[in-house]
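Practice problem: predict the structure.
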Amino acid sequence: MKDALRGVSRIAGGSRQTEGSVLRNVLLCCCLLLTAAGVAASDDDFYQRLYQRGLTHFAAADYVDAFAELRSAAFGFVEKVDQFEIAQSYASVAAHRLGHDADARDSLIRIVSAEKVQPHYRAIELPENIRAEVDSIAATLLTAQEAKLLGVTVIAKPPVAVPTPTTRPNVAVTAPREESKPPEAVVDSVDARLQEAQRAVDAGEIDRAHSIYNTLLDVVSLAHADVLRVAEGLYVVDDFAGAACAFQRAGALGRGEEHDHYYYAVALYEMGQYADAKRELAEALPYIAATPEVARYRLKIASAAR
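Answer:
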């Protein structure tokens, strides 16, 4: 603000600068500064609202929505470590109660990563029952070294025989969940479930399709192509937070997958992550048709990302 005013003062020194134009410049600088502050506050408000919705859904035992909202809210709390870890703690419990231990562990790992930078977990404000459940989940799902950072002792686990991975390319799961099923059977099961979800979408059974897509994300070694199918499905059922998480999990997009940059961009935009949405949209535009929907979101994203 001081630099802006000094700049205006230098301009004011010119012989042809009127007092009225100096005043206009001062007001313009103030407006720009207030606008920038308003954008930052707006982003913060978005994540706070998402966080509160997540806690509300958690209290109502709606763990699917709670997990998606709390994980997404945590993205906005990277500079508020306590709130970041609280959001991830509730997200890990929600995922665990859904039977999605891969997601529960992922949330815990994010807390562990934060703890490596600066310890906060033992001091964050969690209800006793929630902290006890988080600690219990951590004791089961984390390694001894990871759990130690949270002040948790792992539960001893019996040795598990790991089957030899299949050589089949693009296999969705390298190790079967049930010993009686070969890896190929699990792959077929994933494909069958994806087809079932698509049939549910076609029949207008959105909640059922949503549930299937969320369940599939629990498959730890889901193939890249299948993760993208799940992400696209979550996009179709308007779970933009879930879709964004799935696209993030899928990683880099290759040739023939350029259209997924567009779906990812829309999901990010709907979550309020405008700069990232603009980046993904730019990757997609050379490869997709300029439909009315694309034109509409292109304008929305460009306007929001300024």
